[in-house]
Amino acid sequence: MNETLQLDIRAILKRLPHRYPFLLVDRVLECVPGKSIRALKNVTINEPFFQGHFPHRPVMPGVMIIEALAQAAGILTFVTAGAFPTENSNFYFVGIDKARFRRPVGPGDQLTLVATLERTLRGIWKMSAVASVGDAEAATAELMLSLGTGSSSSPEAEAGSA
User: Fold this and answer.
1) On the CB side of 15, how many CA atoms lie within 13 Å of its CA?
2) Which domains does the chain have, with CATH numbers?
């Protein structure tokens, strides 16, 4: 039987290489290694992207919602693998399919981020993911992550870390 974990911000910082302003997971409510994760992102007016997206009607960019889902999925992969990010290894966001945006997300919303491990095949972890505000789905997607090791000479490879 898998143990259900809860992670506060200190534990999240150990499991993800991201830092402000790009850390998009505030708390993990439930993480069942090898199965699923449910995490929170508190959306505040202080988010740097709200200055330009859009000043008259702040909306969290869809790409940031997907990144928050990828970070939650990244935590699940690290916990499942019993690993931590290092200078030489990290899980990278390598693919996205079927992304759909269903409602805007703005300041004051609390995003619930759920990622469920569907399968692993040849080092690729495929997850289904849903971001919700209350009972309303904000976004859904299928995400793929992969463990990368060593340093990369490609800035594109570094840009997609989960």
Assistant:
1) 27
2) 5-159 (3.10.129.10)
